[in-house]
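Structure in, sequence out. Go:
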């Protein structure tokens, strides 16, 4: 199960005297909603634009997965957290929903975000049904 951890995290920076919860660190990196309602992650992002947050155990957590768990509670870690808005940097709970890997691939295909072999294989599997 994926769940936000409320344990205290001690910043490695000497600029911070107080320990911070991961929840506080999360919100410190979230911008107010934009015109589409997206709450954009302003912290570290990977090449695909997904936000990353360092957990209390020093492991990286995807920011949108943390946001989902924070707002809706624990969920099965085998599930994907998908975006209605199709913005990988968005952590707005209103824009997030759970799905299987298959749901995620079908969502990507519908939105034209995958191409090549992956898209062809998904289309073949859907046509075989």
């Amino acid at each position: 199960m994926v769940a936000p951890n409320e344990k205290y995290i001690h910043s490695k920076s000497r600029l911070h005297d107080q320990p911070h919860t991961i929840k506080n660190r999360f919100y410190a990196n979230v911008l107010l909603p934009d015109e589409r309602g997206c709450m954009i992650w302003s912290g570290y992002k990977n090449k695909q634009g997904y936000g990353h947050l360092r957990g209390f155990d020093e492991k990286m957590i995807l920011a949108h997965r943390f946001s989902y768990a924070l707002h809706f509670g624990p969920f099965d870690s085998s599930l994907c957290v998908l975006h209605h808005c199709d913005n990988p940097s968005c952590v707005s709970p209103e824009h997030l929903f759970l799905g299987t890997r298959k749901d995620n691939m079908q969502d990507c295909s519908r939105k034209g975000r995958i191409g090549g072999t992956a898209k062809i294989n998904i289309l073949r599997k859907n046509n075989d049904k």
